[in-house]
What we know:
The structure holds 2 protein chains of 2 kinds.
Chain A: H1 15-23, H2 28-59, H3 63-68, H4 80-87, H5 91-122, H6 128-140, H7 143-157, H8 163-188, H9 191-199, H10 204-215, H11 217-233, H12 236-241, H13 250-258, H14 265-300
Helix pairs in contact in A: 2-14, 4-14, 5-8, 5-11, 6-8, 8-11, 8-14, 9-10, 11-14, 13-14
Chain B: H1 9-44, E1 47-48, E2 57-58, H2 62-69, H3 71-105, H4 109-121, H5 124-134, H6 141-148, H7 165-189, H8 194-202, H9 207-218, H10 220-235, H11 239-244, H12 256-266, H13 270-303
Antiparallel strand pairs in B: 1-2
Helix pairs in contact in B: 1-13, 2-13, 3-7, 3-10, 4-7, 7-10, 8-9, 10-13, 12-13
Amino acid sequence: MLDQPTIPRAQTATEDDRSAVTHRRPSPRKRAGLAVRHVILVVLALLTLFPVVLIISTVFKTPADIRTDPFGLFTSFSMENLVSAWTVGRFSDYLLNSILLSVPSTLAVVAISTMAGYAFARLPFPGRTVIFYTVLLGLLVPFFTYMIPLYFQLRSMGLLDTLVGANLVLTLTGIAFGTFFMRAFFSELPEELEQAARVDGCSELQIFVRVMMPLTSSGMGALAVFTFLSNWNNFLVPLLYLPSGDYRPLTTGLYMFTGGRSLDIGPLAAGTLITILPVIVLFLLLQRQVTQGFISGAVKG
Amino acid sequence: MARHHHAPAVTRRAQTRLGLLLALPALIMTVVFFLFPMGSALYFSVVDFDGIDPTPEFVGFANYTEMFTDPEVWHALSNNVIWIVIGTAAPMVIGLLIAVLIWSVQRGSVIYRLAFFLPFILPGVVIGIVWTWIYDPANGWLNRALGAIGLESLQRGWLGDPSLALYAVLATAIWAYSAFVIVIFLSALRNVDIELVDASRIDGANAGNRLIHIILPQIMPVFLMVLTLTLVGGFSVFDIVFIMTGGGPADASNVLGTYSYTQAFQLSRIGYGTTLALLITVLSVPFAVALNRLQRRMALQETGV
């Protein structure tokens, strides 16, 4: 595969060319092939979505139905599970804690990564390369390596079992990728922009904040959504560093719930729905930016 | 204006000052919450620390010797290897095929994309919970489905069977990882030269040939990136195993991650647990570096630099 001739990139088909190709009247054989492919995809998509359907079905069952047939699809309807998850199951607290863990850490990751990304991409300063690779080391080393000592470090810093401590750890786990990602965006901006702003009398800080940063807003947005999703879904950080349960977010809250009897399946399903609903909504609204940004940042290096 | 223009000294000084200032928060966070605990990890691995004693006993390489002679380490490691091999190969193949299939039908691709994306964004704990229901011995849909097609003999308690638990969890992970692979490959496929694919079709290349010789080389850097992420992730897999089986039944599905966690946080053997975590690092970092190098080289080749 390696000795394939390199492909000339210049004549890549544009979107218009592509639709022109598809709009040509397909032969019957080709149309049959297309239909088969659609059937395969629909079946696979339904299989992929089945677990989510199962959650929704279980959420809206009556407790009596859950006792006799917990996973039968859509055999009854009640809101009881949602209500008991919200009130008895403390999922309203967990939801609040999830927000308090994800929002500040996401803002911190975006701010720190944007600043560092700009510095590493465009500002010469002594030790730049060494500092850059030090920050980037976090991309290479698994969280496992340092998570156990970090527990005792947070304990001696008085940050164990605090929202501040967990937010700081979530921030740390995001800035290696974030810095790497934002640096790629800043590296692409033309040198002339910076010089023109300097000629106009902008200070270095103004060049960063007023000229360069607005041009990477799509990158910052993608990083924010991506970071928010990872932090919202994070399990290990709250499991380790919020042990008492006072600030338990949805993920570890759900885990604690699984220890219960099978009677709790209804509220547990409701809890999973509360956990994934914001994530799904966010992703449906912003999926294009997220994946696009993720790909470009990762491949450019 | 000349591209390499030498900035005046005043500008240089201002840039240096701002550069240091902007890099400082990232550096402080990295030193305090990453480098420092990494150093402590090395220290923890040579002491017998129970989490309470402020001056733990120095034990030299005892934790390391124990690690190499502990049969459970080898068992967990072999589970990691199974996880890595199957858990990388299966999502790569499934993901590539589905991505190319979505890419090739074009119409409706937005809806397919959303459907196949979904597992990618769900938290591991939710994935674990819902698949535990699917595997439920009495009411789960897997056993129901087997019953419905006359395969009652295959019905069992999937997560409770020591010889199957790891594979049951792995199947769940493949479901989730495949979504990730599809997401990434679909984006990469947008840049694939469709004229080249059409030309090869006219030249008589079949679908398999087109995939391997025309499409795959064009998305190779992304392919390697995904390979790196799934491979390296395979060494430190934790969430989904911990949630679905806790490493059980009777340690059958233990991986290094769950074993390290159990030793450190459930048995208070902090020194030993940390040593196991270091093993995960030593195993995964070389893979990450090697694959990353290869990926870079290919990315450069592709752009013709």
